[in-house]
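Quick start: read one record
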Amino acid sequence: MYTDDDLQQAVDNDIFSQASVEKFRAFILKRNDTHFADEEGFKLVTSFNDIFVVIACSLLLISAGWVVQGIHESLATLVIAGLSWGLAEFFVLRRKMALPAIFLLITFVGSVFASVDLFVDLPLEKQLMFSALAASLSAWLHWIRFKVPITVAAGAASAVILVIASLVTLFPVLREIWMSLMFFGGLAVFAIAMRWDMADLKRVSGQSDVAFWLHLTAAPLIVHPIFSNLGIFEGDQTPLDLGLVLGLYLLLTLVSLVIDRRAFMVSSLVYVLVALTELLDTYGLVGDSFAYVGVVIGFSLLLLSGFWHKSRSVLIDKLPAQWQLRVPVVS
């Protein structure tokens, strides 16, 4: 199976012409009755061999870490980080395998974070600060070497933790508003994601993949503080709370349509399900409430998925001309 990025590389190496590739894309999109940008595609699995390699890498990393963890736990995580980098040299840099690239990036950055966390013995905020700093630097080095799209998101998430931990360390009073700090961190990641998105509005290059992972990182950072402050999981929702939840979900849905990314809808979905379920439980539908909510929400999402492109067309036409130039085109 050939990805769109493979086709672009073929154009760059004068194997195909840009015109022929564009005609091929147009033919496939017309046949499938869709639009390429709206599919929000990203490279995850190129073949079953990706899954096979990830299983093998998992066994190797877990076993290697287990062997040396008796010496020191931080040494085990460092060994896992070193092996992750070494395996990436072959499976990512030479073989260009998508799923192993994602897996090895997560194990590398996560192991570096864990190594510092296990090695230093400091107050929580300082410990998180040093761990996040190490993770951010490791993500930056990994990006320079391997250019895996998810690396930028991993670095951004580490940077958010670093900034929040540093602020709380310098100003302990900010510990009371760490949810708000998370929200502003999410907005910063969202702004970075939009910069990557605007660099590839047709979504035919690796920049779109980077933006996808950044949006997937930004969405929970923005959504969780908002809905948590409404007390969704406290079990005391009122019809007014339900109205606020649905209003926010509608707003996030509109944002998702405008930027042509579904991350915000998915991230906020769990809060809507919990709020609706709790409300129906209050009115005597205990036991069946989740089923009713699931039917309504599931049908609504399927309906939106089927008319995603048409819904975007209507919405984008109502935006100012300058905004329309900064979001994926509607054909």
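The chain has 14 helices and no strands.
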